[in-house]
Specification:
five-stranded antiparallel beta sheet, single chain, 343 residues
Length: 343
Protein backbone atom coordinates (compact mmCIF):
# COMPACT_ATOMS: atom_id res chain seq x y z
CA UNK A 1 0.00 0.00 0.00
CA UNK A 2 1.26 3.47 -0.85
CA UNK A 3 0.60 6.41 1.44
CA UNK A 4 -1.18 9.39 -0.08
CA UNK A 5 0.61 12.71 0.17
CA UNK A 6 -0.89 15.38 2.39
CA UNK A 7 -2.29 18.52 0.70
CA UNK A 8 0.17 21.35 0.10
CA UNK A 9 -0.29 24.03 2.80
CA UNK A 10 -1.71 27.28 1.42
CA UNK A 11 1.22 29.29 2.75
CA UNK A 12 3.65 27.03 0.88
CA UNK A 13 1.57 27.38 -2.29
CA UNK A 14 1.71 31.17 -2.06
CA UNK A 15 5.50 30.99 -1.68
CA UNK A 16 5.69 28.67 -4.69
CA UNK A 17 3.66 31.07 -6.83
CA UNK A 18 5.62 34.09 -5.64
CA UNK A 19 8.86 32.51 -6.80
CA UNK A 20 7.37 31.92 -10.25
CA UNK A 21 6.59 35.58 -10.89
CA UNK A 22 6.16 39.06 -9.54
CA UNK A 23 4.05 39.90 -6.48
CA UNK A 24 1.62 41.63 -8.84
CA UNK A 25 1.18 38.40 -10.82
CA UNK A 26 0.63 36.47 -7.62
CA UNK A 27 -2.03 38.96 -6.52
CA UNK A 28 -3.87 38.63 -9.81
CA UNK A 29 -3.74 34.87 -9.70
CA UNK A 30 -5.07 34.69 -6.16
CA UNK A 31 -7.98 36.96 -7.10
CA UNK A 32 -9.15 34.36 -9.64
CA UNK A 33 -10.64 34.76 -13.10
CA UNK A 34 -14.24 35.67 -12.29
CA UNK A 35 -15.59 38.79 -13.99
CA UNK A 36 -18.98 40.51 -14.19
CA UNK A 37 -21.42 38.45 -16.22
CA UNK A 38 -22.24 39.57 -19.75
CA UNK A 39 -24.80 38.21 -22.18
CA UNK A 40 -22.06 36.10 -23.77
CA UNK A 41 -20.79 34.68 -20.46
CA UNK A 42 -23.99 34.12 -18.48
CA UNK A 43 -24.24 30.52 -17.25
CA UNK A 44 -27.67 28.88 -17.19
CA UNK A 45 -28.51 25.43 -15.80
CA UNK A 46 -31.67 23.51 -16.67
CA UNK A 47 -32.60 20.34 -14.77
CA UNK A 48 -34.31 17.67 -16.87
CA UNK A 49 -35.40 14.16 -15.95
CA UNK A 50 -32.11 12.49 -16.89
CA UNK A 51 -29.57 15.33 -17.11
CA UNK A 52 -28.62 18.90 -16.30
CA UNK A 53 -28.16 21.10 -19.36
CA UNK A 54 -25.41 23.71 -19.11
CA UNK A 55 -25.60 26.75 -21.38
CA UNK A 56 -23.24 29.73 -21.61
CA UNK A 57 -24.43 32.86 -23.38
CA UNK A 58 -27.55 31.02 -24.51
CA UNK A 59 -25.51 28.28 -26.26
CA UNK A 60 -24.99 24.70 -25.13
CA UNK A 61 -21.66 23.96 -23.47
CA UNK A 62 -22.33 20.45 -22.18
CA UNK A 63 -24.85 18.26 -20.35
CA UNK A 64 -24.29 16.26 -17.17
CA UNK A 65 -26.10 13.04 -18.08
CA UNK A 66 -27.07 10.68 -15.26
CA UNK A 67 -30.40 8.99 -16.05
CA UNK A 68 -29.66 6.75 -19.02
CA UNK A 69 -28.75 3.06 -19.31
CA UNK A 70 -25.05 3.95 -19.33
CA UNK A 71 -22.86 2.35 -16.67
CA UNK A 72 -21.83 5.74 -15.28
CA UNK A 73 -22.80 9.43 -15.41
CA UNK A 74 -20.84 11.52 -17.90
CA UNK A 75 -20.69 14.93 -19.60
CA UNK A 76 -21.41 15.16 -23.33
CA UNK A 77 -20.77 16.86 -25.66
CA UNK A 78 -17.99 19.29 -24.74
CA UNK A 79 -18.25 22.34 -27.00
CA UNK A 80 -15.80 25.18 -27.57
CA UNK A 81 -16.94 28.77 -27.11
CA UNK A 82 -17.88 28.97 -30.81
CA UNK A 83 -19.84 25.70 -30.68
CA UNK A 84 -17.19 23.39 -32.19
CA UNK A 85 -17.54 19.90 -30.71
CA UNK A 86 -14.34 18.68 -29.09
CA UNK A 87 -15.38 15.23 -27.82
CA UNK A 88 -16.22 12.04 -29.67
CA UNK A 89 -19.90 11.07 -30.21
CA UNK A 90 -19.46 7.29 -29.87
CA UNK A 91 -20.82 5.41 -27.94
CA UNK A 92 -23.64 7.89 -27.32
CA UNK A 93 -24.33 8.15 -31.07
CA UNK A 94 -23.10 6.55 -34.29
CA UNK A 95 -21.45 9.13 -36.55
CA UNK A 96 -19.84 8.27 -39.87
CA UNK A 97 -16.06 8.38 -39.80
CA UNK A 98 -15.63 8.01 -36.04
CA UNK A 99 -13.50 5.24 -34.62
CA UNK A 100 -15.79 3.00 -32.56
CA UNK A 101 -13.25 1.59 -30.14
CA UNK A 102 -13.43 1.58 -26.34
CA UNK A 103 -17.21 1.91 -25.97
CA UNK A 104 -16.71 2.88 -22.32
CA UNK A 105 -15.02 6.16 -23.28
CA UNK A 106 -18.05 8.38 -22.66
CA UNK A 107 -16.90 11.89 -23.60
CA UNK A 108 -15.90 13.16 -20.12
CA UNK A 109 -16.16 11.03 -16.99
CA UNK A 110 -14.59 9.77 -13.74
CA UNK A 111 -14.16 6.04 -13.10
CA UNK A 112 -11.51 3.50 -12.17
CA UNK A 113 -10.64 0.01 -13.35
CA UNK A 114 -10.17 -1.68 -9.97
CA UNK A 115 -12.15 -0.78 -6.84
CA UNK A 116 -12.18 -3.73 -4.45
CA UNK A 117 -11.36 -5.73 -7.56
CA UNK A 118 -14.42 -4.46 -9.45
CA UNK A 119 -13.90 -2.80 -12.84
CA UNK A 120 -15.80 0.49 -13.04
CA UNK A 121 -13.84 1.71 -16.09
CA UNK A 122 -15.00 -0.80 -18.70
CA UNK A 123 -18.66 -1.56 -19.45
CA UNK A 124 -19.69 -5.22 -19.74
CA UNK A 125 -23.18 -6.20 -18.64
CA UNK A 126 -23.18 -8.56 -15.70
CA UNK A 127 -19.41 -8.28 -15.26
CA UNK A 128 -18.32 -4.72 -14.53
CA UNK A 129 -19.62 -2.26 -11.97
CA UNK A 130 -21.95 0.69 -12.37
CA UNK A 131 -21.76 4.21 -10.94
CA UNK A 132 -25.39 4.95 -10.13
CA UNK A 133 -26.83 8.45 -9.77
CA UNK A 134 -28.28 8.82 -6.27
CA UNK A 135 -29.64 12.34 -6.45
CA UNK A 136 -28.84 15.96 -7.12
CA UNK A 137 -27.85 17.93 -4.03
CA UNK A 138 -27.71 21.36 -5.65
CA UNK A 139 -28.15 22.96 -9.07
CA UNK A 140 -27.64 26.71 -9.18
CA UNK A 141 -25.85 29.68 -10.72
CA UNK A 142 -24.10 31.58 -7.94
CA UNK A 143 -23.22 35.26 -7.45
CA UNK A 144 -19.94 34.74 -9.34
CA UNK A 145 -21.84 33.55 -12.43
CA UNK A 146 -20.59 30.01 -11.88
CA UNK A 147 -22.88 27.13 -12.71
CA UNK A 148 -22.73 24.65 -9.82
CA UNK A 149 -23.98 21.05 -9.83
CA UNK A 150 -23.57 18.80 -6.81
CA UNK A 151 -24.62 15.15 -6.82
CA UNK A 152 -24.32 11.84 -4.96
CA UNK A 153 -23.55 8.54 -6.65
CA UNK A 154 -23.17 4.89 -5.61
CA UNK A 155 -20.50 2.53 -6.99
CA UNK A 156 -22.28 -0.83 -7.31
CA UNK A 157 -20.74 -4.18 -8.31
CA UNK A 158 -22.41 -6.52 -10.81
CA UNK A 159 -23.77 -8.61 -7.93
CA UNK A 160 -25.58 -5.57 -6.49
CA UNK A 161 -23.24 -4.89 -3.58
CA UNK A 162 -22.32 -1.25 -3.02
CA UNK A 163 -18.53 -0.91 -3.08
CA UNK A 164 -18.32 2.78 -2.18
CA UNK A 165 -20.04 6.08 -2.80
CA UNK A 166 -19.05 9.56 -3.87
CA UNK A 167 -20.11 13.19 -3.82
CA UNK A 168 -19.19 15.34 -6.82
CA UNK A 169 -19.22 19.04 -7.52
CA UNK A 170 -19.14 20.48 -11.04
CA UNK A 171 -18.42 24.19 -11.48
CA UNK A 172 -18.65 25.90 -14.89
CA UNK A 173 -17.36 29.37 -15.78
CA UNK A 174 -16.79 31.31 -18.99
CA UNK A 175 -13.41 32.91 -19.72
CA UNK A 176 -12.36 34.84 -22.85
CA UNK A 177 -12.62 32.44 -25.82
CA UNK A 178 -12.88 29.53 -23.41
CA UNK A 179 -14.62 27.53 -20.72
CA UNK A 180 -13.58 26.25 -17.29
CA UNK A 181 -15.06 23.04 -15.89
CA UNK A 182 -14.00 22.16 -12.35
CA UNK A 183 -14.65 18.57 -11.28
CA UNK A 184 -14.30 17.82 -7.57
CA UNK A 185 -14.98 14.38 -6.12
CA UNK A 186 -14.99 12.88 -2.63
CA UNK A 187 -14.77 9.08 -2.61
CA UNK A 188 -16.28 7.54 0.52
CA UNK A 189 -15.80 4.05 1.96
CA UNK A 190 -18.75 2.28 3.64
CA UNK A 191 -18.71 2.35 7.43
CA UNK A 192 -18.39 -1.44 7.69
CA UNK A 193 -15.56 -2.27 5.28
CA UNK A 194 -12.48 -0.80 3.56
CA UNK A 195 -12.16 0.18 -0.09
CA UNK A 196 -9.07 -0.54 -2.18
CA UNK A 197 -8.38 1.54 -5.28
CA UNK A 198 -6.16 -0.86 -7.19
CA UNK A 199 -3.06 -0.20 -9.24
CA UNK A 200 -4.15 -0.13 -12.89
CA UNK A 201 -3.66 2.22 -15.81
CA UNK A 202 -7.42 2.05 -16.53
CA UNK A 203 -8.57 5.32 -14.95
CA UNK A 204 -9.48 7.88 -13.77
CA UNK A 205 -10.45 11.55 -14.52
CA UNK A 206 -10.85 11.25 -18.26
CA UNK A 207 -11.89 12.78 -21.56
CA UNK A 208 -12.06 11.28 -25.08
CA UNK A 209 -11.59 13.84 -27.82
CA UNK A 210 -12.94 13.95 -31.37
CA UNK A 211 -10.99 12.13 -34.08
CA UNK A 212 -9.91 15.37 -35.79
CA UNK A 213 -7.98 16.31 -32.61
CA UNK A 214 -5.92 13.12 -32.44
CA UNK A 215 -2.23 12.55 -33.09
CA UNK A 216 -1.11 10.12 -35.82
CA UNK A 217 -2.04 6.68 -34.47
CA UNK A 218 -3.06 3.16 -35.38
CA UNK A 219 -6.63 1.86 -35.48
CA UNK A 220 -7.52 -1.75 -36.28
CA UNK A 221 -3.99 -2.35 -37.53
CA UNK A 222 -3.89 0.64 -39.86
CA UNK A 223 -2.00 3.92 -39.60
CA UNK A 224 -4.31 6.90 -39.12
CA UNK A 225 -3.38 10.51 -39.89
CA UNK A 226 -3.58 13.14 -37.18
CA UNK A 227 -2.71 16.80 -36.74
CA UNK A 228 -3.21 17.03 -32.98
CA UNK A 229 -0.50 17.73 -30.44
CA UNK A 230 -0.19 16.84 -26.78
CA UNK A 231 2.17 18.47 -24.28
CA UNK A 232 2.55 18.38 -20.50
CA UNK A 233 3.72 20.77 -17.80
CA UNK A 234 7.30 19.45 -17.81
CA UNK A 235 7.81 19.82 -21.56
CA UNK A 236 7.21 16.29 -22.75
CA UNK A 237 5.08 15.86 -25.86
CA UNK A 238 3.26 13.43 -28.11
CA UNK A 239 2.82 9.81 -27.14
CA UNK A 240 5.72 10.27 -24.70
CA UNK A 241 3.30 11.96 -22.28
CA UNK A 242 1.81 8.55 -21.42
CA UNK A 243 2.73 7.29 -17.97
CA UNK A 244 4.65 10.41 -16.97
CA UNK A 245 3.97 12.61 -13.96
CA UNK A 246 2.91 16.19 -14.63
CA UNK A 247 0.72 18.95 -13.20
CA UNK A 248 -1.24 19.24 -16.44
CA UNK A 249 -1.62 17.96 -19.99
CA UNK A 250 -2.85 20.02 -22.96
CA UNK A 251 -4.26 18.43 -26.13
CA UNK A 252 -4.87 20.73 -29.13
CA UNK A 253 -5.37 20.67 -32.91
CA UNK A 254 -6.21 22.97 -35.84
CA UNK A 255 -9.61 22.97 -37.54
CA UNK A 256 -10.90 25.28 -40.27
CA UNK A 257 -8.33 27.99 -39.61
CA UNK A 258 -8.53 27.92 -35.81
CA UNK A 259 -6.76 25.95 -33.09
CA UNK A 260 -8.81 24.32 -30.34
CA UNK A 261 -7.60 22.64 -27.18
CA UNK A 262 -8.52 21.03 -23.89
CA UNK A 263 -6.14 21.12 -20.93
CA UNK A 264 -6.65 19.05 -17.78
CA UNK A 265 -5.18 20.31 -14.49
CA UNK A 266 -4.29 18.22 -11.42
CA UNK A 267 -4.66 20.42 -8.33
CA UNK A 268 -1.56 20.62 -6.06
CA UNK A 269 -3.68 19.60 -3.05
CA UNK A 270 -4.55 16.28 -4.71
CA UNK A 271 -2.97 13.14 -3.28
CA UNK A 272 0.12 12.12 -5.29
CA UNK A 273 0.35 15.40 -7.18
CA UNK A 274 1.77 15.64 -9.79
CA UNK A 275 -0.29 12.74 -11.05
CA UNK A 276 0.48 10.10 -13.68
CA UNK A 277 -1.23 10.36 -17.09
CA UNK A 278 -3.05 7.69 -19.09
CA UNK A 279 -2.72 9.80 -22.25
CA UNK A 280 -3.04 8.27 -25.71
CA UNK A 281 -2.38 9.44 -29.26
CA UNK A 282 -5.94 8.42 -30.32
CA UNK A 283 -7.65 11.11 -28.20
CA UNK A 284 -7.95 9.72 -24.68
CA UNK A 285 -6.23 11.47 -21.82
CA UNK A 286 -6.79 10.87 -18.14
CA UNK A 287 -5.27 11.83 -14.80
CA UNK A 288 -4.70 8.61 -12.83
CA UNK A 289 -3.24 8.76 -9.29
CA UNK A 290 -3.50 4.98 -8.77
CA UNK A 291 -1.64 3.45 -11.74
CA UNK A 292 1.98 3.64 -10.63
CA UNK A 293 2.82 -0.04 -11.26
CA UNK A 294 1.62 0.18 -14.86
CA UNK A 295 3.04 3.61 -15.63
CA UNK A 296 6.48 3.04 -14.12
CA UNK A 297 6.69 -0.61 -15.22
CA UNK A 298 7.25 -1.84 -11.67
CA UNK A 299 6.88 -5.51 -12.47
CA UNK A 300 7.88 -6.62 -8.98
CA UNK A 301 5.49 -4.15 -7.26
CA UNK A 302 2.00 -4.84 -8.66
CA UNK A 303 0.34 -2.94 -5.81
CA UNK A 304 2.64 0.10 -5.73
CA UNK A 305 -0.09 2.54 -6.71
CA UNK A 306 -3.03 1.19 -4.75
CA UNK A 307 -4.67 3.14 -1.95
CA UNK A 308 -6.81 1.77 0.87
CA UNK A 309 -9.63 3.73 2.47
CA UNK A 310 -10.43 2.51 5.96
CA UNK A 311 -14.12 1.97 6.81
CA UNK A 312 -15.89 5.32 6.78
CA UNK A 313 -12.83 7.17 5.46
CA UNK A 314 -12.85 9.41 2.38
CA UNK A 315 -10.39 10.95 -0.07
CA UNK A 316 -10.92 13.98 -2.32
CA UNK A 317 -9.57 15.10 -5.70
CA UNK A 318 -9.89 18.37 -7.61
CA UNK A 319 -9.44 18.77 -11.37
CA UNK A 320 -10.04 21.49 -13.94
CA UNK A 321 -10.73 21.19 -17.66
CA UNK A 322 -9.74 24.34 -19.55
CA UNK A 323 -11.42 24.46 -22.97
CA UNK A 324 -9.53 26.99 -25.04
CA UNK A 325 -8.62 28.40 -28.44
CA UNK A 326 -5.02 28.58 -29.59
CA UNK A 327 -2.10 26.32 -28.75
CA UNK A 328 -0.66 25.89 -25.25
CA UNK A 329 1.28 29.15 -25.29
CA UNK A 330 -1.42 31.26 -26.93
CA UNK A 331 -4.05 30.00 -24.49
CA UNK A 332 -1.72 30.69 -21.52
CA UNK A 333 -2.31 27.22 -20.17
CA UNK A 334 0.50 27.44 -17.60
CA UNK A 335 -0.88 30.71 -16.21
CA UNK A 336 -4.38 29.28 -16.01
CA UNK A 337 -2.98 26.35 -14.06
CA UNK A 338 -1.36 28.71 -11.55
CA UNK A 339 -4.71 30.47 -11.03
CA UNK A 340 -6.35 27.09 -10.39
CA UNK A 341 -3.53 26.04 -8.08
CA UNK A 342 -3.97 29.18 -5.99
CA UNK A 343 -7.60 28.35 -5.19
Amino acid sequence: MSTLKRPLPFASLKTFLFRLGSPALLSCLLMGTSAPATAESTVRLSTLSDRVRIEIGGQLFTEYIFGTDAAKPYLHPILAADGTQLTRNFPMADVAGEEQDHPHHRSLWFAHGSVNGVDFWAEKDGVTGRIVHDGLIEVKTNEKNEGVIRARRRWVAADGQQVCSDEISLRVTAVPAGRLLDFEIRLIAPKDRPVVFGDTKEGTMAIRLAKWMTLPHRFQGRDQPGVGQMVNSVGQSGAGVWGKRAAWVDYFAPREGKVYGVALFDHPSNPRHPTWWHARDYGLFAANPFGRHDFENLKDQPRAGEHVLAPGESVSFRYRFYVHQGDTAAARVAEHFLEFAAR
